[in-house]
Amino acid sequence: MGWEVRMSNSRGMAYFFNAETSESRWDPPSGFTKEEVESLPGAGYLKANSQPKPKPAPAGQVRASHLLVKHRGSRRPSSWKESNITRSKDEAIAILRGYQAQINGDAEKFAELAEANSDCSSHAAGGDLGWFGKGQMQRPFEEATFALEVGQMSDVVETDSGVHLLLRTG
Question: Where is the WW domain (predicted)?
Answer without folding.
Answer: 1-31
